[in-house]
Each structure stands twice: as C-alpha cells, then as structure tokens.
Hints:
This protein is α/β, with parallel strands linked by helices. It folds into four domains: 18-113 and 345-371 and 381-488, Glycosidases (TIM Barrel), CATH 3.20.20; 125-176, Oligo-1,6-glucosidase, domain 2, CATH 3.90.400; 191-336, Glycosidases (TIM Barrel, Alpha-Beta Barrel), CATH 3.20.20.80; 493-571, Immunoglobulin-like (Sandwich), CATH 2.60.40. Helices cover 27% and strands 18% of the residues. It is built from 18 helices and 22 strands. It has helices spanning 21-24, 46-50, 53-59, 94-106, 125-130, 191-207, 237-241, 247-257, 278-282, 296-299, 317-330, 349-352, 360-371, 402-413, 418-428, 465-470, 475-488, 491-494; strands at 3-4, 18-19, 27-30, 63-66, 70-71, 83-87, 110-116, 144-146, 165-168, 173-176, 211-215, 265-269, 291-293, 336-339, 377-381, 496-500, 507-514, 517-524, 530-533, 540-546, 558-561, 566-571. The strands form six sheets. It has an eight-stranded parallel β-barrel. The radius of gyration is 23 Å and the shape is globular. The mean pLDDT is 95. Residues 76, 79, 116, 179, 215-216, 269, 344-345 line the site of 1-deoxynojirimycin. The site of 1-deoxynojirimycin (NOJ) has 9 residues, from loops.
Amino acid sequence: MVEKEDISTGGEPGISNKQTWWKEAIVYQLYPRSFKDSNDDGIGDIRGIISRLDYLQSLGINVVWLNPVFSSPNDDMGYDVSDYRNIMTEMGTMDDFEELLKGLHQRGIKLIADLVLNHTSDEHEWFVRSKSSRSDPFRNFYHWWPAEKGIPPKRSSVFHEEGAWTYDEQTDSYYLHYFSRKQPDLNWENPAVRKEMYAIMKFWLDKGVDGFRLDAFTFISKESGYPEIPEQYKDDYFSYYSSGPRLHDYLQEMNREVFCKYDLMTVGEASGITSGQALLFTGSERKELQTLYHFDHANWGRKTTSLYYPDENNRKLSDLKKIFTSWNTAFENDGWGAVYFTTHDQSRMVSRFGNDTTYRKESSKLLFTFLLSMRATPYIYQGDEISMRNIRFENITDYRDLHTINYYNHLAASGGDVQAFLTAQKEVARDNSRTPFQWSTKKNAGFTNGTPWINVNPDYDTINMESAEKDTGSTLHYVREMIALRKSLPVFVYGDYTLMEEESETLFIYTRRLEDTRVLVALNFSDHQNPLTLPADFTLVKVLINNYPGVNNEINNKVTLQPWQAIILEYK
Ligand code: NOJ
C-alpha cells in the first residue's frame, strides 16, 4: 500500500511506503562549471544554465542538484566556500540565481543546493579572523592545536599525503583540514558555528530553494582533544571521521532548527557509512535526514586501500548486486535511499560500469534502466544522458582537480610510479566527469567560444546533444522514455524489490511488485548473449521498455538477452 504522507511533517524523514515528492523525484545533477558558458570566459555559469532550461525540462527530470555556486577561490571547485550568501563571480550574480530558480520552478523543477558543512575556504572571513590571533572571537570557529603542545596526533587528509594538520606561523598553531589546506574544518562543537550554519540554510530556503545536498556531513563532529585514532580505524580513517560523538545530536538539532520548518528534500553525502547504519540517519523516528547516498559501489572495482587505482580482480557483478540489494534491504520499511553511478567525484558511468566502445549506447541505456527502476531516488549526472565517456587524459598538465594533481606531485617527490598513477587516473580521476557538456559539433562542443577551463572530450564530433536529438535510437531518447515510464507507474518508486539469479556474474535480474502490478527487470551486464530464465508462474502482460527494440518482444519460456540488453516486462 502506498500512503499519502502528511506534508505537515515538512523536512522530516518518512516511513518507506508513504508517498512524498522527494521519493518520487528524478534528480539531475548539474555541475555548473562544465554545463554551459554564456560569457565566453571558458567557465560554465548560471546564465548558461538559464539558456538550457527547456532542455532540462524536456528530459522529464523534476529536481536539479546544483553543485556549489557560492563565492569561492575554487581550490576544490566550489567546495571551498568564502561567502555562503553570495554567488561566485565566475558563475554570475544573485539576480541570475533568482532568475534560474524562478525558471526552474516555472517548469516544475525543484532545486537543491549543495551545502558545504564540514569546512569553509581559508579565505572565508571567519577563518581570516580565526587565524589572526589566539584571542580573536572567531578563533573557536575552527580546530586549532597550539604548537607548544608538540606535533598534533595524526589525522589523514583526503587531498594531502602530508596529513590534515597544517602549521600556521601567525599564531604558532596547527589547524585541521580533512580536505585541502585551503579547506579548514569548522568547529561544530561551537554553538556559534552551528547557529551561523542554520542561518545560512534558512537564508537559501527563504529564497526558495527546495532542499540541500549536505556535503561531507558525516565528518562534522570531532572528538575533543583529538586523541590518537584507534587501531581499528588506522587504514580506514573515513569510518573514524564519520563516527564523531555528536554527529547525530547536530543532525537532530539541524532538523529541529531548520528542516522541520520547510517542505524540503535533504540528501546527505554519506562517506564512511554502512547500510547497517542507514536508518540512524534516515529513520522516521530519528528526525535527521530524509535520504543519503553511499559509496559502496563507488569502491567496487577499486583497490580497497586506495581510491587511486582500479582493480580488475574486484569487479564481480555478484558483489555489485549484493551492494545494491543490501542498501535496498536497509530502506525496506523505513527511511529512503538514493541511487547513482556518476557524480562529479566519480568517473563516467558508461566507462566504468558499461562498455564505452562497442556497446556505448546499449550499455548506457542498460545503466539508466537500472537507475530508473530501483527503489530509491535516482540521480542522473549531466552528460550521461548522451552517454559521455571518460576523457582519459594523457598528461598531468591536462588535469585541473587538486585530488589528482596533489597525489601526482607527492609521488613525483617521493620517487613513486607516476606513470602507473596516470594510467590509473584515466579510469578513476574525477576530472573524467567534469569535462564540458557536449552540446553540438561546433567549436568546443558548443560549450564556450572562449578557452574551456578543462579540455573538451575530442569525441564530441560524434557524441553530442544535437546529434542525439536527431537519432531516435540515442541514449537521450531512451532516457526520456525511461523517465516517463518511472513516472507513470508507482511500482517503480514504491514497489518491493526482489533480486533473482544472485550468483550470476553477467545477469542482474530483479522484480518489483506493488499490489497487483509486477514487473521484471532483466539486465545483461556483458558483451555476450545470455539466456534468461523467467519465474515459473510468469505470464507476460506487456514489454514496458527494451533497449533492443523488437528483439525479445515476444516473450515465451526461452529468452536470450543480447549484449547489454535491458528489458522491463510487466507480468502476471
Ligand atoms: C565531497 C564533494 O563531493 C567533493 O567534490 C569535495 O572535494 C569534498 N566533499 C570536499 O568538500
């Protein structure tokens, strides 16, 4: 049974089978720096997005997650905010933002802003004040370790192999930064920090934004005194950082102070969180967040000890199925999840989970069939709908992401194997998904008339939006069809999920069921034909979608799926 959720519960989480707009949402992640440049400075901007609003609407999506557009020196591409109440110069003005919001709302699309909670830029006035003197009123807005106490206990940094404490001469102290040196961590133990952050949230909600994606929220609570990290976490500092003692207190306070007062959508970036912990954040009784997204499948196919190297031996489809199935189980009765493949932090989905050469279109369509038929809010990353691929840069000078550049420099300085690293980056680097959107065959794929801030993938002569529009067999047309299908049948949102063929290393098969509606999703994750066994009591009602039109439309007991074939069957 699907029940209408009482909307007066506002930003509170909900019981799984209760209807809410954010469970029914189809989210498009928009990375503005690379979407569309309107003033030819080579950087995508808000007016560029405004010029493509009709395109967004044509997809059928109903929520946009906009990566940060707040003032920033862009050490980490906007995740280092220097003023939370202003728009980054390169992106435009507040008027532009308001026009964008209005234009989206007029088209029935909501906007969720990307809020960086754990840290600011070192150029934020709070940090400038904080580092100016040990007695400044803003000193306690950040984490400091006075040098007279010796070297601070080890903390790892995501972006610097040298660690997460950096010495600052001005006050003879070290400050803490889990990410880059230009991203000092805020001290959430300080109530004044929390008050400021809640005021910022209200500022944007009152402006009309419809919710937040909460960046690195699991890291905000830190153990006072910064003790040595317990042995069990030594090789897994993300889990330690995500288990701060007051994390849930802060989230509950955030909900009380802000979320419950608005009809909004919250999605947390849940680094270091397991499916077993999912309901601690999203359970209806907890009054924290509504949804979160995990990283388990982002670590699949990679060496577990490092984010930097792909691992061909760790790419079993059965493992991938276990991951998605365990997250489905976590939200079976309560809370709600998110499902995605690409983000701005992951390489392109077709290059990673599909086949981006021989079966580029087929495998892209298959991956979309999965995303849009799972029991979680689906996220589509810009450019995937035209099956953009990894750019696979050859040279370090092509990269713009500090993650890649810093680690390369570290290896170069310590005599490490930079060539092996560059080879690995072709598959895993974040810049693979940050190259400009390919609009057309025009210069720079129609993204800019200036010099793009990062190279455009040279494959834009064939892979671009205009060509995809003209080709009725394109991924773009299929995505629209699949979105329309998800919207037309509540079974895709609220129906139960049951995995079949658990052990198969090539087939991902599951059923979804809501009351009398039953659908079977069959996905052939391989370059080969594959026989499919249907449930014993199967009677076909209708083929709902098929990425090989005409092939297997007549379903009887024996079905052979084509390479990367995706098909959804309604049955009795
Ligand atoms: C997660 C963001 O998605 C990523 O792009 C960023 O580098 C870190 N958080 C730090 O804010």
